[in-house]
User: Which sequence fits this backbone?
């Protein structure tokens, strides 16, 4: 065959032709724009409308932001400098920065303490959030609540130490007896911790609190974004164990336990958070013993924790229900008792399924901490609407302050939701 | 051969309460019941001790006393001499009003944003995800305050509408956006307007009846009647005819500038608008996500199978995709409605007179009846939530996949 070819073909190309560029309209940005922006006439109209909307938004905000003034001490001064041109008075942020973050009553010379606690929060949260980090860091995470308490509230160092000792005693008793029966270990641990706390409480006196190296700061002096962060972190971390307990209770085969949990969950989910905060501010004090004085912060923490626990319980119940029945049966057939089956087989899988839901609840809860401004606690929103907008210097600076608050919440909440998506991908063990 | 004898009857021992599964759950429940009773007794004891110490008692008599405060946005008769119970009813109606309005608009925003987020158009889908992320990640309280500020600080005062060359003009000569709220035309129901309204209601029924008749005819005989334009005709023509036959009984009263303020028309206060709009766009972002998830949950094979059967694209959407997507969308949608109702309690932050602001706010502060007011408030919200979730359970049962 090759012979015939040699005669018939006068020319055979030996190397391939260099590739030609695709037509201009079928490659690069033009093709992309055709495919994604102007695929059909209707699509083109949509693109133009969307571009116009974006232009309107940018035209309204960009000059205002870029022309912003950062260093004046009052609105009048700022308006004078702007002299009728559009521009933001961001100087309210720089001048009231500390108030926005710490509230207006926290002693100024002590700002380093909550700031340090905030930085340490990242160190403490890191091993929980990222599994690749050395497990030993969890020791610091366990100590963090006590350190943070000591840094923010101050007072005598005996308070956190007694609290740690109580937890250590409880943990020891639990370890000692859990092999025999989970219930014995669990309740024994609680009793041991309570005993140590009560005994240690005798050591902590008012005088010790006042003579302490770290000046004591009462809860009512807390405020600003710090208050939102504290409420969010405390309530979420407290409500996860409570939520697990409620979810397990709701699944329980014991009718009484089940109905207690159902009533609690449905009641809490049926009422708005504001009414629960009203309970915290005007009603809850009546339910404590007359001689005790539980401050507003603690009452709010109790109510918000109950609130988010009910929602987390529903999320975890979904996770428990999503597990195949075989998992429960497998655990039973291995001869594990209820506590072992839950701890070793069921909960690790159910919690993994529930992570996105739990993060959603956590983000929602963090946003809801702004509601405490309604019961006259001065969180970030409370500070803006109260002391700052009411002051003579800054009466009328709305957008800079509200925009700042919105930005802070956006950064935190968006960050958490991005983390949750990363975690979901990370934990996905199925091959898809 | 061996004979089986009955196992010896075990006598009851105390340790069986813990170790025997037949009795263990009873033991635990008895302990739980005891703990519950003790803790309730403890709390109630504290409550009554504290109340006695403060010289208070639990009584709902205050509901009959005159409220002594004014409410500017009411749906029913109310003045400052009305009892507290009447103020609470005004509050309940206001809550329901704003919740209903916000549910409707939030659904509209959410469906539009959710569908557009799936658009092939890159710019539009990015713009919609920007909307969803921005609104989902910022507290609704901040949105309410922002929109309230727009309503009160940016909108012109009524006097800006005055003069030959006013700074502000009314939209279409009928809508006035002022810092005291929005004024819209009010309908005036003249004689015979009842007939027009009844005709309208009858034509709505007529549209539904026609569509059902056409569907049944299609299924029974395969004959396809047009649906679109006859429905429109039945919907509009009789009402418009009747309107002119009765001599145009329904007229509009336009708001007009008089004195320092607008007169006539309907005034929608700034707090209501702020709450309504903020709840709508905030919840709309959540609904958009539900809608998107619902549409994406319908597998692509369904669309392709329907196309392979020869259905046209709009029929694929109406007959195949939407019914399956709605099954996924509606339960979270209803819980978003529930969230709107609960979030409407934030009205207290902008001074809209909903139940939280009247009963839980002014009444509570005036009478000092904290426990009674908060309990009534919770009872109201619980009733709403439980009735909505009952409805939702019924719906879920009716659309659940029938599996064998």
Assistant:
């Amino acid at each position: 065959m090759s012979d015939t070819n040699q005669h018939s073909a006068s020319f055979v190309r030996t190397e391939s032709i260099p590739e030609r560029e695709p037509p201009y309209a079928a490659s690069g940005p033009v093709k992309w724009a055709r495919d994604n922006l102007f695929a059909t006439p209707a699509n083109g109209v949509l693109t133009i409308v969307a571009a116009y909307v974006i232009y309107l938004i940018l035209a309204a905000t960009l000059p205002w932001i870029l022309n912003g003034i950062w260093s004046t001490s009052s609105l009048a001064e700022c308006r004078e400098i702007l002299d009728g041109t559009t521009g933001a008075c961001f100087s309210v942020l720089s001048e009231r920065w500390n108030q926005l973050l710490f509230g207006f009553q926290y002693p100024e010379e002590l700002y380093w303490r909550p700031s340090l606690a905030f930085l340490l929060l990242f160190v403490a949260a890191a091993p929980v959030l990222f599994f690749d980090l050395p497990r030993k860091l969890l020791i610091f995470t366990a100590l963090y609540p006590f350190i943070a308490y000591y840094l923010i509230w101050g007072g005598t160092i005996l308070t956190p130490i007694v609290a740690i000792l109580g937890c250590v005693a409880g943990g020891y008793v639990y370890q000692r007896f859990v092999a025999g029966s989970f219930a014995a270990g669990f309740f024994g641990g609680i009793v041991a911790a309570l005993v140590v706390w009560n005994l240690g409480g005798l050591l902590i006196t008012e005088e010790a609190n006042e003579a302490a190296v770290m000046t004591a700061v009462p809860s009512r002096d807390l405020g600003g974004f710090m208050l939102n962060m504290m409420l969010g972190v405390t309530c979420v971390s407290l409500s996860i164990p409570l939520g697990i307990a409620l979810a397990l209770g709701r699944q329980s085969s014991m009718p009484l336990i089940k109905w207690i949990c159902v009533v609690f969950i449905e009641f809490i989910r049926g009422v708005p958070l504001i009414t629960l905060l009203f309970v915290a501010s005007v009603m809850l004090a009546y339910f404590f013993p007359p001689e005790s004085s539980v401050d507003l912060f603690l009452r709010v923490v109790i109510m918000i924790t109950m609130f988010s626990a009910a929602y987390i319980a529903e999320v975890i119940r979904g996770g428990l229900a999503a597990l195949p029945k075989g998992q429960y049966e497998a655990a039973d057939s291995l001869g594990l008792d209820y506590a072992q089956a839950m701890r070793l087989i069921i909960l690790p899988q159910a919690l993994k399924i529930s992570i996105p839901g739990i993060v959603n609840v956590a983000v929602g809860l963090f946003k809801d901490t702004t509601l405490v401004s309604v019961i006259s606690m001065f969180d970030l929103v409370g500070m803006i609407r109260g002391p700052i907008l009411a002051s003579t210097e800054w009466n009328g600076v709305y957008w800079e302050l509200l925009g700042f608050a919105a930005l802070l919440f956006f950064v935190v909440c968006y960050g958490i939701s991005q983390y949750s998506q990363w975690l979901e991908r990370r934990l996905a063990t199925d091959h898809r | 051969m061996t004979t089986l004898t009955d196992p010896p009857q075990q006598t009851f021992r105390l340790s069986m309460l813990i170790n025997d599964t037949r009795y263990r759950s009873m033991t635990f429940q008895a302990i739980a019941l005891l703990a519950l009773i003790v803790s309730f007794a403890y709390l109630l004891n504290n409550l009554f001790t504290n109340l006695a110490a403060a010289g208070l008692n639990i009584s709902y008599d205050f509901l009959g006393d005159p409220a002594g405060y004014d409410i500017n946005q009411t749906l029913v008769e109310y003045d400052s001499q009305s009892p507290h119970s009447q103020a609470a009813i005004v509050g309940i109606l206001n809550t329901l009003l704003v919740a209903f309005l916000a549910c409707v608009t939030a659904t509209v925003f959410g469906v539009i944003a959710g569908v557009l987020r799936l658009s092939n158009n890159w710019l539009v889908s990015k713009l919609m995800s920007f909307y969803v992320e921005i609104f989902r990640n910022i507290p609704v309280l901040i949105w309410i305050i922002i929109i309230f500020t727009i309503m009160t600080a940016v909108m012109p005062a009524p006097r800006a509408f005055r003069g030959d060359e006013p700074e502000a003009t009314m939209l279409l000569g009928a809508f006035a956006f002022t810092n005291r709220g929005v004024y819209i035309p009010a309908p005036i129901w003249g004689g015979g307007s009842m007939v027009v309204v009844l005709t309208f209601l009858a034509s709505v029924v007529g549209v539904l009846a026609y569509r059902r008749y056409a569907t049944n005819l299609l299924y029974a005989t395969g004959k396809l009647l047009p649906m679109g334009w006859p429905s429109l005709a039945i919907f509009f023509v009789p009402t418009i005819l009747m309107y002119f036959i009765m001599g145009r009984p329904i007229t509009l009263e336009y708001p007009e500038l008089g004195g320092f303020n607008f007169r006539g028309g309907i005034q929608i206060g700034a707090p209501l608008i702020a709450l309504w709009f903020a709840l709508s766009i905030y919840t709309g972002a959540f609904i958009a996500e539900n809608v998107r998830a619902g549409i994406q949950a319908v597998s692509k094979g369904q669309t392709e199978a329907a196309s392979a059967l020869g259905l046209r694209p709009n029929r694929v959407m109406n007959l195949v995709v939407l019914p399956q997507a709605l099954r996924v969308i509606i339960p979270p949608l209803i819980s978003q409605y529930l969230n709107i109702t609960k979030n409407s309690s934030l009205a207290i932050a902008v001074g809209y007179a909903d139940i939280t602001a009247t009963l839980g706010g002014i009444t509570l502060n005036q009478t000092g009846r904290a426990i009674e007011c908060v309990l009534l408030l919770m009872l109201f919200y619980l009733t709403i939530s439980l009735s909505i979730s009952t409805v939702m359970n019924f719906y879920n049962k009716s659309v659940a996949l029938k599996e064998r």
